[in-house]
Amino acid sequence: MNQPSKSTSRAPRGGNGRAGRVPYDLDAVLDIAVLAFNEFGYEATSMGVLAERLGTSKSAIYYHVTGKEDLLRRALERALGGLEGILSEPGALEGSPVERLRYVLRGAVLVLADDLPYVTLLLRLRGNTEVEREALERRRAFDHVIAGLVDEARVEGTLRADVDARTTVRLLFGMINSIVEWYKPGGALTPDQLAEDVITVAFEGVRVHDAAPVPTARV
Amino acid sequence: MNQPSKSTSRAPRGGNGRAGRVPYDLDAVLDIAVLAFNEFGYEATSMGVLAERLGTSKSAIYYHVTGKEDLLRRALERALGGLEGILSEPGALEGSPVERLRYVLRGAVLVLADDLPYVTLLLRLRGNTEVEREALERRRAFDHVIAGLVDEARVEGTLRADVDARTTVRLLFGMINSIVEWYKPGGALTPDQLAEDVITVAFEGVRVHDAAPVPTARV
């Protein structure tokens, strides 16, 4: 689920850069920008603040991008491109609806865990600018594909029909999107395990299903 | 799950109040304050803005409360009091751990749906002031009780042990807390049905469990 287009090379932070140099690659500039957007809000973050955080000059940032909006567009592209990329993978196209749904949701968790600050930025968008509205439109289109898979799986009879389809989709996304609030990348819980846990809880529920209907009867 | 202490009487909105009058009861003042805090943030909301929204004077608000912090304290008390109240109900104290867990989570959804803006305010707290930190402490204590029930239910064997207890709690709360992002009170989905749906999805999962392990074999 790592996007092949995503460069993981990073220039060293800090160091002996002088103003005007280009000590960071675009990914590092984006990383800093996204953290600042998430912390202060996009509107409240100036290019000057970003330059300060990078320990460089504004002109060094303009070497990579045309401005703040360009940074936002590229950051959102990374989150959306990662999510949309799942939809064209074989696992999302082949198999039964419930299998495809499981594959796509697992993939969404992995993109979220891999690019946590980028997806956080996407999830907190309010649609104040054209760039934000376009991103929200793409996110809605992604959600719409999931909703379609949920519908198909209900028709197939593998997804429960006693909960409204719309509510099902919202609860699934509620659970998945909440990960940005608590998941700490690099900790004991790996992205793969996290994805496994989410899929287990979402599809199978937290209850042990071979337990008797009245659980107390079993203990 | 409606809190008996919660007055539902409301003075009419708008109308012919003149400045200095006390045209609203405390609940109506709180309602307006909470909506404003959620929209603009607590720090950015002045008593003047609140008075304007109420169509009254600041002194009319001071008739009810000692100031903005008092409004915040009372608003958070309503959300927290509602949640904590569940824990002393018979359903939360009697029965097996999994039954008590189900009862408490269902109750939390109902409080959330009943007092949506109040719980939204609670969930978005950052802990910037003493009042906020105290509220966060009480929220953590509530979450801690849930975590204890999850632990007990795992020991009992009714809750799955193949997902980490901490992750289980976070995913359950992730699903429940996300409701503030999309639920519209007064619509077709009643609080009772919402609570039922959340409990079904959380405990039983979205998959139909009498389906064959490989769902395609069934269609």
TrEMBL record, chains A, B:
Keywords: DNA-binding, Transcription, Transcription regulation. Gene3D superfamilies: Homeodomain-like, Tetracycline Repressor, domain 2. It comes from the Bacteria. Residues 23-83 form the HTH tetR-type domain. GO terms for molecular function: DNA-binding transcription factor activity; transcription cis-regulatory region binding. PROSITE patterns: HTH_TETR_2. Residues 46-65 bind DNA. PANTHER family: HTH-TYPE TRANSCRIPTIONAL REGULATOR BETI, HTH-TYPE TRANSCRIPTIONAL REGULATOR RUTR. This is TetR family transcriptional regulator. It comes from Microterricola viridarii.
